Amino acid sequence: MRSQNYKIELDATPDEVFRAISEGDAITRWFAPEASVTPGVGGAVTLSWGPGMEGTAPISAWEPGKRFAWTEQHGDGEPKVVEFLIEAAEGGKTVLRLVHSGFADDANFDSEFDSTTGGWTTFLRLLQFDFAEHKGAPAKHLFRIKYTPRDRIEVLTELLAAMSFQRDGATYRAAINGVDLAGRVLLDGPKGYLILTLDSLHGGALGLFAEQCGSQCGLTTSWYLKQGATAREPEIAAAWDQVLSGISF
């Protein structure tokens, strides 16, 4: 069996980090667009990315400020465990470790392993960003997903062209049907994963994830709107849907 291991430092206390990973409203700030948690061992975590992309997993560890874990069972395969370990660090910061275990060694699971690696890398970066720049600020999660048999990098490239995306080192500029975007490139990679800050909208980030889902590409776009950007959600949603309608899926 294979496992994935991650370690990040967060500008937050252990209790703040525990709430960020174990409370539904907090989870939507950096992870799934819909989430709910029934706390305690024997409780459950429910995450949803829309119809057919939801799941509920029993909580197997619950130690506030220290440890949180859930167990995923898919069909008759071996269960997978997502475990968060929390440690206080110097300067009022916290180290968060994530271990996702239970991946089969079989090559048939390489795509799942790779997409999970890309997913956790980007989501944890979004969690860092939330604590560093938007702790406690109002937030909304605007989510879209499209599937296509096309090559995932080709689709992401077409989307960026439709946004008039222009990059200059660590900064970028773009536009979507009258909404001007500008900010920083928060993360570029693994291949197919891009996070852009929404400085011109006064808060938040845009995650563009082109992932391999079996024989198809799943193009996920998540607008993590924070602070002043939340008031512009209807305008952004309309403009973004128009952009997506022009992509050849």
Task: Give an overview of the whole structure.
The chain is α+β, with helices and mostly antiparallel strands and 249 residues long. It is built from 5 helices and 14 strands. It has helices spanning 14-22, 24-27, 110-133, 152-162, 233-245, and strands spanning 2-10, 34-38, 44-48, 54-63, 67-72, 80-88, 94-103, 139-148, 166-168, 171-176, 179-188, 193-197, 204-213, 216-226. Strands 1-7-6-5-4-3-2 form a 7-stranded antiparallel β-sheet. Strands 8-14-13-12-11-10-9 form a 7-stranded antiparallel β-sheet, sandwiched between helices. β12 (193-197) and β13 form a beta hairpin. It is globular and about 50 Å long. The relative contact order is 0.15.
Question: How are the SSEs placed, and which strands pair?
Answer:
Layout: E1 2-10, H1 14-22, H2 24-27, E2 34-38, E3 44-48, E4 54-63, E5 67-72, E6 80-88, E7 94-103, H3 110-133, E8 139-148, H4 152-162, E9 166-168, E10 171-176, E11 179-188, E12 193-197, E13 204-213, E14 216-226, H5 233-245
Antiparallel strand pairs: 1-7, 2-3, 3-4, 4-5, 5-6, 6-7, 8-14, 9-10, 10-11, 11-12, 12-13, 13-14
